[in-house]
Amino acid sequence: MEGEKGTVCVTGGAGYVASWLIMRLLDHGYSVRTTIRSNPEQKRDVAFLTSLPGASEKLQIFHADLSDPDSFDVAIKGCVGVFHVATPTPTHFNSGEPEEVVIRKAIDGTVGILRVCLNSKTVKRVVYTSSAAAVDFNYKSAEVMDESFWSDVDYIRALNSFASPYWISKMLAEKRALEFAEEHGLDLVTIIPSFVVGPFICPNLPASLQAALSMVLCKPDQYNLLLNTCMVHVDDLARAHIFLLEYPNAKGRYICSSDVITIEEMSKFLSTNYPEFQIPTVESLKGIKGHKGHALSSKKLTDSGFEFSKSAMSLSDSESSSHGSEYKFFRQTSRDRLLLEMLGSTRTGDSRSTWKVLIMDKVTVKVMSHSCKMSDITDQGISLVEELFKRREPLPSMDAIYFIQPSKENIVMFLSDMSGREPLYKTAFVFFSSPVPKELVNHIKSDTSVLPRIGAFREMNLEYFPIDSQAFTTDHEGALQELYGANAENSRKFDACLNVMATRIATVFASLKEFPHVRYRAAKASDASEVTFRDTVPTKLAAAVWNSLSKYKSIPNFPQTETCELLILDRSVDQIAPVIHEWTYDAMCHDLLDMDGNKYVLEVPSKMGGEPEKKEVILEDNDPVWLELRHAHIADASERLHDKMTNFVSKNKAAQMQSARDGGEISTRDMQKIVQALPKYKEQVEKLSLHVEIAGKINKIIRELGLRELGQLEQDLVFGDAGAKEVQLYQDESGDEAWSCNWDASPENKLRLLMIYACVYPEKFEGDKASKLMQLARLSEEDIKVVKNMQLIVGSPVTKKATSSFSLKFDNQKTKQAARKDRTGEEETWQLFRFYPMLEELIEKVSKGQLAKNEYSCMNEPSSTVQETTTKASARSSNAPVAPEKKTPHSMRSRRTATWARPNHSDDGYSSDSVLKNTSLDLRKMGKRVFVFIIGGATRSELRVCHKLTTKLGREVVLGCTSLDDPPQYITDQNKRHHPLDLNTLKGHGDSVTGLCFSNDGRSLATACADGVVRVFKLDDASSKSFKFLRINLPAGGHPVAVAFSDDASSVVVASETHFGASLYMYGEEKAKPTNESKQQSKPPLPEIKWEHHKLHEKSAVLTLVGAAATYGSADGSTVIASCSEATDIKLWHGKTGKNLGSVDTNQLKNTMAAISPNGRFIAAAAFTADVKVWEIVYSKDGSVKEVPKVMQLKGHKSAVTWLCFTSNSEQIITTSKDGSIRIWNINVRYHLDEDPKTVKVFPIPLHDSSGATLHYDRLSLSPDGKILAATHGSTLQWLCVDTGNVLDTADKAHDGQITWIAWSPKTIPMGTGQALVLATASVDKKVKLWAAPSLHST
C-alpha cells in the first residue's frame, strides 16, 4: 500500500484543514495515515474521507487522542513525514474551560506527538500547523509582520475574547515545539496560516468560515474578527503544507497568508455573492471595535518557490480569477476541461495506478499544447506522454489515457494496443476530441478482448486550438488555397476542409455549453447568376456548423435555446487589415522581427566568457510586462518601458550611487548594466531588459525602413486623405513621375502599399492595369499574382462602365475614395493609430442587433420578441456623441518621443494605461458571449479589438479563425492556392517520410517514415477520404530510410539505419492463391521478417533502395534489389531469398543515387562527378547472376549529375545535372564493340529562382508511358513533356518542406468512377501526396 512518494501521517483528520490536506496528499501520490478522536457514544461517520479519490487504496484511519500521545505510535511508525494539524480546541470556545487547562493540553499534546515522531526512527520531517495568533497579537506598531514577530500573552488577555485561551495555547505550543526540535535534533517546520477560508469536505461548518460568514449567519459577536483580517484559501494552505514537507531547505517558521480584507470589503463581497441575505451595510459597521490585524508577510514562503493560486475570497475550489469570480474566460475553460474533466476524472473509480501514460495523435497533441503546460499535465498524474503512431514500449502495469480523434486509423491503432493476451497497458481511458461515428463505436464493441479493459469512453468535444485567452484557431493555414483557389469547388479538399472546420468550431460551443445564433456573410451579388462559389463559402460553413451543433443538443446540460452570438466572416469583409502596418507592440513584434510564433531569440552573455549564447523566450500572458504593453502603441510601449526602467533604478541605491558618481542622466544601456549585477532583482531585470531590447530593435527597423512615412500614407489612403497623386509622390528625390521604385521601401512593403491601393481603388487594377502598375513598381509576376488572388476573395465584381485606357501617369483626380470613415466619438490617441479593422464595427452591430439582414443572414433567426428587445436596447445605447472636430495629434509630453508618435490626452479605452483598467470589469455581470469566426485568417489588430470590446460592451468577445496571420504570412498565403492536380494526402505519419514505392499492380503504396514505422497503404480508390494501411514496426533502434516491393505486394524490403550501420529486412508471407480462376490482389504482408542483413555497407548509410523484375535474357523474373550506399559501393540482393548477388563500386568520392532498369538488365549510378556509370547484370542459364561488369559511361554534362531514371523499355536514361540541363541518352548500343551511348535530346531546366538563376532538380521520375517527367527542387514539383521539354505544370509549394522521394504508379489506379495515372510524393512535412498526371496539352 506504499504510495509512490511514501507514507505520511496527518493528525486531526476530521478537521477542516486536515481533511483538505489529506485530499491533496492523495492527489500528489502519497499514502496517507490519519488520526481521529474516537467517540465512545457513537461511531463517527468518516465517509467524507473514505470516499476521496484514491482513499480506498492509500488512506488508513486510526483512532488516537492528544491526551494520550502514545496512541499515535501505530499511525506514525513507518511514516516519512508527519503533519501535526490536530489541536485540543474545545467544541465551543466559550465552554468555560480554564486557560491553563487549554494551554497544558496543547503543549503536552504537541510535545508528545513530537516525541513519538522522534522515537519512530523513520520520520524525516514534521510540519506543525500553528496559527496567525502566534504572530499578530502584540503591542508593536509594525504595519507588516513576518516570522520574527511573536504574540504577547498580556495583549491577548487584554482583548478579553472568548478565543483568547486558544490563541495563547497556539503561540506557546509552537514555541515549545521549536525548542523541543532544537533540543533533540528533530527536523521541524512550522506553518502559520492566517484566517482560513474556502470550501470544506468535513461534516461541520469550520469555525473560521463561521466567522467569515458571520454577517450571513447573523452573528454580530464575531464581526470584530473581520475588522482587518489576513486570509488564505484552504487549498493554498494544503499545498503549502506539502511544499514545506518536500522543500529540502525548509527551516523554522513560515507564514502562509495571501489576502488582506477589511470588514467594509467583506460586507460588499457578501452582499454581491449572497443577495438573498440581509448583509449589514458598510455604514452600520462603522461602530465595530476590536483588534485590527496586521498585514502578514509570506515573503519567506514565496521566496522559497511557493506560489499562491487561489483568491481567499473564493469560497469554491475552482480556479479563481483576480476578480474573485466564477466567470472563466474562454481559454481557462478549455484548460480546465482537459486537466480536470478529462485527466482528473481518471483518478477515481477502478483506476489502480496513480501514474498514467497519456497517448495522443498529432492533432490532439496540438490541442493539449495550446491549452496546458507540461507541468499542468504531470500534476494530474501523467508520467509519460506518447504519440499514437510512434513505437511505444509495453507498460502492462500502468493505465493509459487516450485523447484522440475519432478516425478509423486511430481506432485501429487503439485496438491493436489493447487487444490480445498481452495489451500494452492495463486499463485504457479513451477520450475523443469530436463525436464518434456509430460504425467506429461498433468496431470497438466487436473486440470482446478490449471492452473489459476500457475504464472510460467519452466524447470530450474539444478539437480547437486556443491561442489567446479569447481566441482560437481551427489550424487551417491553407484555407485560402483550399476554399478560394482555382477549381477549389471541384476539389475533394474543399468539402473536407469545410467539414473539419465546422466540426472544430462546433466543439467550441460544446465545450462552453453555449448554443449560438449562427450568422454569416451572405453572397454579395444581387443577381443569383453572378454568385461564384467563393461568395458561398461563409454560407456553406454556417450550414455545416449548424448541422454539427444540432448533434450536441442531446449532451447533458447543453442549452436548447440560443445563449450567444456567432458571426461567420471571410477576408472579403476587410482586405486591408491583414496587410496594413498595425502599430501596436504585439503586431510590430510579429511583423518586423524574425519570430517563430510567440518565440523570440535573444543573445545573452556567455557564462564561460565566450561568444554570446542564444536564449529562446516566449512572449505570453504569464509575462506581466507583455500583458500590459502588447496592445499599446509601439511609441507608448517604448516610453513606458523607459519609465519602468527609470523607476526601477531609482529605487536601487547602487544605481543611484553610480549616477551620482558619473554625474548626469543614465542611459538605458547603463541602467541595464547596473541592475544586471544585482541577483535580488534578476527576474525583474530580465523581463524589463528583454522588452527594452525588443522595443529598441523594432524602433531601429522602423527608422531604417522609413515606416513612419509609409504608415502615414497607408492610413491616409484608407481614410480618403490620400489618392493616386500622394502614392505617386512616395518616391525618391529623383522626381520621376512614374513609380520608378527608387523607394527606400522593401519589395514587401511596396507590395503591401499596392494591395491597400487596390482595395481602395479597385478600378485602377482592372484589365492589364495591374500588371503595368506592378511593372512600374518593379515587382515580380508572383507579386502580381498576390494582388489578383486577393481580389478573388472579394467575390462577385461590381459592374462598372468602361474606363479610358491606362496611362503611365496617375490621374491626378481631386476626388479621393475612402475605405472607411473615422470613428465618431473616438479620437486616435497616437498618430498612426487611426486605423481600425472593420471587425470592430461588425461586433458592435452584432451586440446592438443592427446587422443588415440582406448582408448577414442567420441560420436560426430569433423570435420577434427577442428582436424587439434587442432593438429597444440598442436604441437606448445609440445616442452617440457628435464627432468632435478633427485635430492634429499632439503631445503634452516633453521627453524623447518622436513627434510622429506623440499622444493626445484622450484615451480610447485600450491603447495606453487603460489596458490595466480591465481589472475594473465586473465579470459577474458579463453579458452573453459574442463569437466571430474569420475564414482565411485573422490579424493582431482584430484580436486587439476583441479585447477592447470585451471591456467596452461587457460581453466576452471570442475570436476564431483558420489561422492567426501576420502580414508576411498572409502575403505568402495569397500566393498559394490548392493545386488542381493535388488529389489526396495519405495521413498517419508521425515524422518525416523518407521513401516510398508502388507495388507492381499499383494498388499498394509502401512508405518509410522516421517514426520507425513502414506503412503499406491500400489504394482501392485514389479519391478516398481515408485509406486502410498495414503497420510494420521495425526492430527497436531502427529507422526506415527506404522501401521497395519484392516479387509482389505481399513482400516488402526495408532499408533501416541504426547507430551501427545499415540493415536490410524483408517482411512478407506466402503468396495468396487466386480463387475462381481470377487474379486477385495479394493480401498485404504480415509483419514477419523473412530475411535480414546487417552492416550491409559497413557503417555507411543507404541512400536509395530500388527493385525490378529481372526479365531480360535468361533471368527467371525474380526481383532484384539494389542498395546504394553513401560511400562508393552498390550491392545487389535477391528479393525473395535475400542472397547477395554481387556488388559494384563507383570509385568516386561518394555516391548520389543508383537506379536499376525496369527489365533488371542495367544498373546506373550518379556520383560525385558529371559522368554516369552503367553496369550490366549478366545472368546464367539457370537465372542466377553470373557477373556485373561495367559496360558504359555517359559523358556530356559539365557538372555533377543529381538524379537519373530509366525509360520503361530500359533502352534510354534521363539525367539531370547541376549544369542546368536535362539529357536523354540512348543506351541500346553495341557497347561490346565500343559503341558509345548517344545523347538523344538536351533540354534546359525550366526552373529559376527570383533572380533568374537556373535551379537544379533533386529527383526525377518518368511516367510508365514515358511521356511525362516529374522533377523536384526543394518543395517544388514540376511536370515536363519528355518530347519537348516544355513545362506541363508546376506546384510551387507541393509540400511544406523538402520533397524526399517521388514515384509514379506502374499502372492506372481507381479514381472515383474512372482510372488515373498517379504520382506519389513524400516529404519531411510528414505527408505523402497523390497527384494526377497533367494534360500533355498544358503549356
From TrEMBL:
Residues 861-912 are annotated as: Disordered. WD repeats lie at residues 986-1027, 1194-1228. This is NAD-dependent epimerase/dehydratase domain-containing protein. Belongs to the STXBP/unc-18/SEC1 family. Belongs to the NAD(P)-dependent epimerase/dehydratase family. Dihydroflavonol-4-reductase subfamily. One of its GO terms (biological process) is vesicle-mediated transport. PANTHER family: OS03G0858400 PROTEIN (PTHR45282). Residues 8-251 form the NAD-dependent epimerase/dehydratase domain. InterPro entries: Epimerase_deHydtase, NAD(P)-bd_dom_sf, Sec-1-like_dom1, Sec-1-like_dom3a, Sec1-like, Sec1-like_dom2, Sec1-like_sf, WD40/YVTN_repeat-like_dom_sf. GO terms for molecular function: oxidoreductase activity. It holds the Pfam family Epimerase. Residues 861-880 have a biased composition (Polar residues). It comes from Hevea brasiliensis. Keywords: NADP, Oxidoreductase, Repeat, WD repeat.
